[in-house]
Design brief:
- The protein is of the alpha/beta class.
- Helices cover 44% and strands 12% of the residues.
- The protein is built from 13 helices and nine strands.
- The strands form two sheets. Strands 1-9-8-7-6-5-4 form a seven-stranded parallel β-sheet. The chain has a two-stranded antiparallel ribbon with strand order 2-3.
- Helix 6 links the parallel strand 5 and strand 6.
- Helix 11 crosses helix 13.
- The protein is globular, with a radius of gyration of 20 Å.
- The two termini are 23 Å apart.
Length: 356
């Protein structure tokens, strides 16, 4: 971790409103070639946030095109036992991940293979590479059992889901590490915006932390950097006090909430960890339309001053900063998505030029 200093370089969250993975990869390399991610295309149903990482989950079934987990199925117990045997085998011998159900496939994650092929063919070296998995809270509250109850509330299924995601993340680190650069894996956790609300009132802080920490440990076991992306507000102390290396927050709309944890934020930065500022708006088309790299630079510098007042040097914050959109752009029009990518690239350049 101490060797990775992003110095305000840009990266992306991963989804785009295009229909071709090669085109998506070209857009990545045009705008964030230093830390390229693989891209998810929501236009393909199998690349939906939950659907993309479902393969390998025991009891997986479909009804009317809707995936669910059937614990009453005649093969469920056998599938569960087989799953845990595979998990233990791959945990003890990670080299076996490549031929396991924990590897991402071309069918559900074509963008991953496109990124790898593109990097292999490129003469340019990236500074780091980025992968992602759906976070365990979002995943386990987003998939239901046959009784229409989220599997998060089924202890055994939640444990299986976390372990599935952990090894899918670990597999990504192993594959991406061949490029000889730091590997970042984000846990995409939009559901954490609902933590503490009536919708998730029965989910405890301890349960959330335990799920995140298990996946972070799998990423760390391969030498990767574990990040979390939350595109709205949450209990930031829970994440700042975790072992996560990177926190990606919506600095455009929620910085005033994020700065309410000054002690935890200072400790996080003092430990050498990374803030990924989601300062480029993605939620509302009118915000994308009205902003520019210059206006966002002024906004970010104002936020930077507030963090520096906590007792952290400007140089330290800059060194430990990534610049990102506030979320993926898969739900925006192509025109607006391209502007987000351009502002992400251009804002990073302005900040870094100002620091040179």
């Amino acid at each position: 971790m101490s060797r990775f200093k992003p110095e305000c370089r840009p990266t992306l969250i991963g989804s785009m409103p295009v229909e071709n993975h090669l085109e998506a990869h070209r857009l990545v390399m045009d705008h964030t070639p230093e830390i390229p991610p693989w891209v998810q295309l929501p236009t393909f149903r199998q690349e939906g946030m939950v659907a993309q990482f479902l393969p390998g989950l025991p009891g997986l079934a479909h009804s009317g095109g809707r995936p669910y987990v059937d614990t009453d199925g005649p093969d469920f117990e056998t599938e569960l036992l087989t799953f845990y045997e595979a998990y233990l085998s791959c945990s003890e011998a990670p080299e076996s991940l490549e031929a396991s159900n924990f590897a991402l496939t071309e069918e559900t994650a074509a963008g991953f293979g496109t990124l790898c092929s593109g990097l292999e063919a490129s003469a340019d070296d990236p500074y780091a590479v980025k992968g992602q998995v759906t976070g365990p809270i979002t995943f386990a509250t987003g998939i239901k059992d046959q009784h229409d109850q989220a599997i998060f509330y089924h202890d055994q299924l939640r444990d299986a889901a976390v372990k599935l995601l952990a090894l899918k993340a670990r597999w990504q680190v192993r594959v991406l590490a061949k490029f000889g650069k730091p590997v970042i894996i984000f846990l995409d956790e939009p559901a954490l915006a609902g933590f503490g609300s009536s919708e998730f009132i029965s989910i405890t802080r301890e349960e959330v932390v335990a799920c995140l920490e298990e996946i972070a440990a799998a990423i760390h076991a391969e030498g990767g950097l574990a990040g979390v992306h939350v595109c709205a507000n949450t209990d930031w102390s829970m994440l700042l006090e975790s072992s996560l290396d990177i926190i990606n927050f919506d600095a455009y709309a929620y910085f005033d909430r994020f700065i309410l944890y000054p002690e935890q934020l200072k400790n996080f930065l003092d430990a050498g960890r990374i803030l990924a500022w989601g300062i480029i708006p993605t939620l509302h088309a009118e915000d994308i339309e009205k902003e520019s790299a210059a206006s966002l630079q002024a906004k970010w510098e104002g936020q930077l001053e507030q963090v520096v007042k906590l007792g952290v040097t400007t140089e330290k914050v800059r060194a430990q900063t990534l610049i990102t959109p506030s979320c993926g752009v898969g739900s925006q029009s192509r025109e607006k998505a391209l502007k987000v990518l351009e502002m992400t690239r251009d804002l990073s350049r302005l900040i870094r030029q100002n620091n040179s």
